Amino acid sequence: MNITKENVDALNAVVKVDIVAEDYQDKVTKVLNDYRKTANIPGFRKGQVPMGMVKKQYGKSVMIDEVNKLLQESLNKFLVEEKLDILGNPLPKVQDDFNWDADKFSFEFELGLAPEFDVNLKPKKKVTQYNIVATDELIEKELENIQTRYGKMSAKEEGTEVANITGTFVNEEKEINKKSTISVKDIKGKTNLKKFVGAKVGDVLELKTKNLFEEEHKLQQALGVSHDDAKELEIPVTLTIEEITEIEPAELDKELFDKLFADGSVNTVTELKEKIKEDAEKQFQQQADQQLLNAVTENLVENTKFDLPVEFLQKWLQTAGEKQLTTEEAAAEYEKSEKGLRYQLIEGKIMKDNDIKLDYAELVDYAKGFIRAQMAQFGNMNPEEKELDDIAGRILQNQDEAQKLQGQLISQKLLAFYKENMSFDTKEVSYEDFIKEVYK
């Protein structure tokens, strides 16, 4: 057997595999001998079937099977030994005159080669790194939410500007019939507000969905419709009021503080505000880190220039999935996935050049940390190590879950690397301004 590689250009190559009978004949003979021992053919005792008959019936199919096995093994071994960094999988070249009755066979495979490039971690245009701070307004709003959450509810005879209204929204045409509780504080506009203030249990309010709430997602929740439907919804609805309540805010005292923090770490309103600020900014940091990782990714893809074997990749995409794609469909699929492929190559290059690795022990520890956080949410603050090990082991046996956790851990490592090795324009913003700037 002989394997050779010919470079078409820097990104494409063809591998040729020549196979002769001596390469596969021993394996074919062994398989046929095994067939002969077990073949059940009328007129012959088991194991006594003439080899000529076995060859005639099974010879060609066995030969084809063994050649294909040898071909795949040899090709894979060649790619590893030659240390070829390929994209996708080798594509067999179609041979119209191929003949399985020939004395020797030649197979050709097209390869798409990964490009060589350098990654510039000091681009001229710096990425913005956001430092999100909890404003006094946000802290005061959270204080109000806490007081409301732990407050006392009482029934009211009629609606007020701070009442909660429970009732059923109906629109027969759109098949909406949803019981919901809404806050009058969320209602938008004086005209709508007048309908709620002074309304009583049993009243039927006629409303229009457009501009009914200050925030769009409140309409989605109230009517039980999808986000997209809520966005476009302009219909009349009726609301039959079934209950009117108000909440008397809880006092900001030691009793409330101990409910919130059983360890006694908060004893004053000032300490509660500090805790709210600390917790909020921890959550904001997670969002800021995710935004930074996204921004660095975009920046690296935009500023790291290299060519790809486009024609090969589009051809490979035609047969890579469960469904065969047309040329046009493969081109469209390539266009959608090109940016992701480019970042995969950049990410791999950064990890290789900077010895950023991920071993199984790290993945287990990361999984255990994730499990520990989940268990804490349900009150289990000190799970046993063996329990964590067992759960982590089960999770990591699931290939999809393992890949998901692996991706998260790699992202963490890369983010730490970027923070240490790249320069950023740091900007301090409120959460509201962060949302406006990043998701405008």
Automatic annotation (TrEMBL):
InterPro entries: Trig_fac, Trigger_fac_C, Trigger_fac_C_sf, Trigger_fac_ribosome-bd_bac, Trigger_fac_ribosome-bd_sf, Trigger_fact/SurA_dom_sf. Pfam families: Trigger_C (PF05698), Trigger_N (PF05697). One of its GO terms (cellular component) is cytoplasm. Residues 268-385 form the Trigger factor C-terminal domain. Gene3D superfamilies: Trigger factor ribosome-binding domain, Trigger factor, C-terminal domain. Its EC number is 5.2.1.8. It is an enzyme of class 5 (isomerase). Belongs to the FKBP-type PPIase family. Tig subfamily. Its main location: cytoplasm. Residues 1-146 form the Trigger factor ribosome-binding bacterial domain. This is Trigger factor. It is found in: Cytoplasm. GO terms for biological process: 'de novo' cotranslational protein folding; protein transport; protein unfolding. GO terms for molecular function: peptidyl-prolyl cis-trans isomerase activity; protein folding chaperone; ribosome binding. NCBIfam families: tig (TIGR00115). Keywords: Chaperone, Isomerase, Rotamase. It catalyses: [protein]-peptidylproline (omega=180) = [protein]-peptidylproline (omega=0). The lineage of its organism: Bacteria, Pseudomonadati, Bacteroidota, Flavobacteriia, Flavobacteriales.
